Amino acid sequence: MRNGACARCKMPYCGRACQKADWQFTHKQLCDFVRTADSRAAEAASAAEAACKSDVVRGATCYICLGEGPGLVRGCACRGDAGYAHVKCLVRAEAELGRESRDGPGQCPTCRQFYHGVVRLAVAWGEWRAVARCPGDRFFHALRELGMALNECGQHGDALVLIQCRLKIQKSWWRGLEGRDLVESQVAFAAEQSNLASILGSLGKKDEACGILRESFSLLKQTIGVEAPDTINATVNLASSLKTSSHFQEARQLLEEMLPLSRKVHGSLDECTIKMAVLLGDVLQACQMQPDGNMQLSLDTARTVAKLYDEAYASSRRLFGDDHPETRDNKWRAEGMREMFQEQGISLEPEAPHPA
Question: Range of 14's domain?
């Protein structure tokens, strides 16, 4: 390093003390991402163009610059002429629109869907290239978007580095905040921890992901309370992680506490409530799994599980419709549970006696 800028990536600094502090904080982890931003942005753009080439019809034009191909991509829900754009045009639009006009970075301004796959990664690298040496709000948001785009495209190790750095930056802000501002920052931090846990899960670090989600859930309970919608929503992520990690009893206790609160706060016709009901049904069965892999459900447990699956199926039908994948999955659970016991001559209706 030399005074005023990083010797590797040319990140500018106001002096040696500033340079040293940033290196010790996050720049040591981010330096390679800054240094290779130009080349990796170009590679990502080429990959997106190649992946979308077969989807581009003859005569298609970019809806932003109105120019023709080559190099057009499609990465959102737009169809027809509105669905095509050059990566460089999407990156420019990302910068010009700003965060105030959308829910967040990486979102199509027309259909409101977030870009996905290789197009999302190309746009994220393009935005990162533009702001990597200019720390500020755009840098902070580009850091997250690039991390999650990398994770979506299977580059989990790089994603982990970026999201860990973002969390470190977020937590450093707490020192200057108090009251409502501090609470809002902590809630945002907890949401980001969910992204970190997702990446850890993709890397096979299930127990570590569980630990992160436990910490996130505890933080939300302390800051905004157990009945806050964000706390209730975080329950689904934690319970899912506990189930995946085979912590079935812990998942059961959590869901039995939080499902009634979700019904109270969100109501039964809510995606969060539906997912909790399904998860509780799943873990109740898993809790009675035998060492040999066989499941021996008591009749009371089977009836409870059937009731949860029936609730989830009925609610998802009303909320999503019959053709939604979640509705079909819940129908399979509800009907499958009853068929399994009917084959044994056992009714799951509460008033039916257990056969002698």
Answer: 1-35
